[in-house]
Specification:
507 residues, alpha/beta, six-stranded mixed beta sheet, five-stranded mixed beta sheet, 20 helices, 47% helix, ATPase_NBD, Ppx_GppA_N, Exopolyphosphatase, Ppx_GppA_C
């Protein structure tokens, strides 16, 4: 059995339908349909500020088509929300009544606070930062929030967005130098009006399609090795590079770029100028993309999530990964126990690890080679899946580190997997991650038969570069002995030692 939720998000630029499904064996909802219509309602206001007849007809016809899709999927719940697209319309009440009469859809009109809050809420439950500024730039409004210690402290909704800025400042297809100067001055003045925003010196987290398009442009420029945008971090200098690249193109050439949504090409210049202006006001060089936004915030609320961010955010994502791709019946508690014992014993003799390394080992343990013995195929599959799967709460660098540890088979394959990401890590970091992978691989040999017979590992160094591994067990561990002796070489190579096992049966 499954449960499906559909959310219709009526924005100033686009109207989007997303359908989520939750199966009984899953913790969270998975997106199974995502479709949008570039309605550009913000550009269909008349001089009196009313949504025009043309705009209303586009809205109604789009909703009719969306409901056919909702019915096809058999969604159990359907929620339709509107933001500044309708909130700013003088005839808002009339539009809502007409939509209800013609489609039987009751649109929930979000206040500026709710629009800002749901964006923050989505970020809060998908990125593990305790303090940041969020920006969600739509077509007709821009929501800013500031949160600290996991709580939203301030918010503001500006009555401008990427589409309305384009309409106001771009007379032709692309900004002229004079238009750009005027627009940037306007943006600086708007952000300067918020005292609580000044010089916070915290990261800026950007939500929405414009941010994703800008991120994809820069990833193409630098030949980024992942096709992933959530928690993708850029500097203001890199944002300016994208701004320069975009300004050098014609609109038609931008629309032809694979990494840019054709319907967003003409609003990217206002969007990126807004992001840069906000970073300058906040006094930060760190700009992060969130792939989770208003719709996800609504979904999280419907799931019963609260502002109390779960400490298990990352574990929940790992559970979802396993529920989709896990192979085998590995006893995670025993493997984690043995891996951490081995970690602390090794670190006592060779203190090269810190608490962050222990955390990475804990996270990598439940997905080590997806539950099967380490061979070339499962190792390759594990690295590919973990490195390309969005793990909420982890930076992309942390995700690759976990992928390297969880897929460890030998140092040759480790280096092969690490090579495309070598600029991300120091040699010291890669050495530690390979050592963590070796610890995990060797620890798994001591629970080969999933019987929990190995109780304790104690390592001493009676002579320089010679370790004695005292392994206390009960009952028979013939398989564990055999595989430990075969695989201990990975630890020996990492630490340039010879390991002599001493298996001691617990009476």
């Amino acid at each position: 059995m499954s449960h499906k939720i559909s959310i219709i998000d009526i924005g100033s630029n686009t109207i989007r339908l997303v359908i989520y499904e939750k199966r009984q064996d899953r913790y969270s909802y998975e997106c199974i349909e995502n479709i949008k219509e570039t309605a550009r309602l913000r550009s269909r206001f008349d001089k009196e500020g009313n949504l025009s007849e043309e705009g209303i007809n586009i809205l109604v016809s789009t909703l009719h088509e969306f409901m056919k899709i909702v019915d096809h999927y058999g969604a159990d719940e359907c929620v339709a929300v509107a933001t500044a697209s309708l909130r700013l319309a003088e005839n808002c009440d009339d539009v809502l009544a007409r939509v209800k009469a013609e489609t039987n859809i009751e649109i929930r009109l979000l206040s500026d606070y709710e629009e800002a809050y749901y964006g923050y809420f989505a970020v809060h439950h998908s990125i593990s930062l305790q303090e940041a500024v969020t920006i969600d730039i739509g077509g007709g409004s821009t929501e800013i929030t500031y949160f600290k210690d996991g709580k939203m402290k301030n918010y503001h909704s500006f009555h401008f967005g990427a589409l309305s800025l384009k309409m106001e400042y771009i007379s032709d297809e692309m900004l002229t130098a004079k238009e750009q100067k005027r627009m940037k001055q306007f943006l600086a003045e708007q952000f300067a009006s918020l005292d609580w925003l000044q010089n916070l010196q915290v990261p800026v987290i950007a939500i929405g399609g414009s941010a994703r398009n800008i991120g994809r442009v820069y990833q193409q420029i630098v030949d980024y090795p992942l096709d992933e945008l959530h928690h993708y971090e850029m500097t203001v200098k890199q944002l300016r590079k994208v701004e320069e690249v975009i300004s050098e193109q014609s609109l038609s050439s931008l629309q032809k770029m694979d990494v840019i949504d054709k319907e967003r090409a003409d609003t990217l210049q206002p969007a990126i100028a807004t992001f840069i202006a906000l970073c300058e006001t906040v006094g930060t060089s760190t700009w992060i993309i969130s792939n989770r936004g208003l719709r996800d915030g609504l979904l999280y609320e419907m799931q019963g999530k609260t502002e109390e961010q779960s400490d298990e955010l990352i574990e929940e994502s790992l559970y979802e990964l396993k529920s989709r791709f896990y192979i085998g019946n590995q006893q995670e508690d025993d493997l984690r126990r043995l891996a951490l014992q081995l970690f602390h014993e090794v670190n006592h003799l060779r203190p090269v690890f810190d608490s962050s390394d222990e955390r990475l080992l804990r996270l990598a343990t439940p997905i080590f080679n997806l539950g099967k013995k380490a061979d070339a195929e499962t190792s390759n599959m594990t690295f590919f899946l973990v490195s390309h799967y969005t793990l909420l709460g982890l930076s992309q660098k942390e995700r690759i580190a976990i992928a390297l540890i969880a897929s460890f088979k030998n140092r040759r394959l480790f280096n092969q997997y690490a090579e495309p990401f070598s600029p991300w890590f120091t040699e010291e970091e890669l050495h530690r991650y390979a050592a963590l992978g070796a610890i995990l691989k060797v620890a798994q040999t001591l629970d080969r038969t999933k019987t929990s017979h190995v109780k304790m590992i104690i390592i001493s160094e009676p002579k320089e570069s010679q370790w004695e591994a005292k392994i206390i067990y009960e009952c028979s561990i013939m398989a564990e002995k055999y595989h430990f002796n075969r695989q201990k070489k990975h630890l020996e190579k990492q630490f340039n030692v010879v390991i002599s096992p001493n298996f001691v049966e617990k009476l």
